[in-house]
Request: fold
Amino acid sequence: IDLAQLVLGRIRVDAMRLLRPEITLKDVPSLVMGPDQTLHARVANLLSGATVGVIRLRDGTLHVPTASGTEPVRKIDVRLDASAGDGSLSSSGSFAFREENVKFALDCGAPVATGESSRIPITLKMNSEPLKAKVAGIATLDNGLQIDGDLKVGMDNVRRFLAWTGIPLPHGRSLRRLSASGPAHWNGMTLTLDDGAFALDGNMAVGLLAITPGPRPRIEGTLDFDRLVLDPYLNSDDDAAAAAPSAARPALSAQAILKHFDADLRISAAEILAVPLRLGRGGFTISAKGGLLASEIGELELCGGQAGGRIGLDMREEIAKVALTINI
Reply:
């Protein structure tokens, strides 16, 4: 504490250290929130003219509200630096969430007023075993948090990431080595990559992809592949089923990735491979909602000719029902 400023009645804490704090976040009912308690105002007040320059938090626990109560974020070790006094904030540290350790660094520049809104330059880096990500862009808080910028994401095992977020999938050889990069927009509900580059299981594509998180995530997109190998998805559960106890095999074999998601995808490829078949150019759509899946196959090059058709899959019961129509 600056004693000279204290004598003048101006209290400013240069640095504060918190050891093993227990912090609980509580939702404020929107009907009682005044103009100075909106998300925009609270963040602006936090960053501008802060009375604490640096906060060092060690071995803390943060209790986050959920639909069923609260969930803890443990082993928080964070340094927050707002000593510049211009609304900028620099933070870095680590925490443990659902038994995974996460390291991060977040830099927020000074807010720039543009009319009735403020634009905040941000850079976020996150590193953990399930997920590695980097975002550099501009955040606005007028209608909730929105971010526009460049995004890079990498996952060695998508199934591990989904299990970490609360969506367990059966074991399998697919959904490995995911990467995504490109211009991105977060509108508070959906993350969209407008002109992205993607890779999954060795397959590479360009196009648009939009992901809406939630208990049942929704994936929408238009993806164009040079070469699409389908083998990992046709045989992904064989090893898991062989290794599982006999009682568990029927449940594993009935599982499908899109049983856990809603989707609306349009996919095209210059070459499609599904051993022992080597197909030419083709395109298909995938629409899934509530355990019902429909796929339209159009203009698939096959043995010098063309094939098309429709596949319907009902995964709402333990035993899936399939309807197949093929035109050659």
Q: What stands out?
A: The chain is about 10% helix and 55% strand. Confidence is low (pLDDT under 50) at residues 28-41, 236-254. The two ends are 81 Å apart (CA to CA).
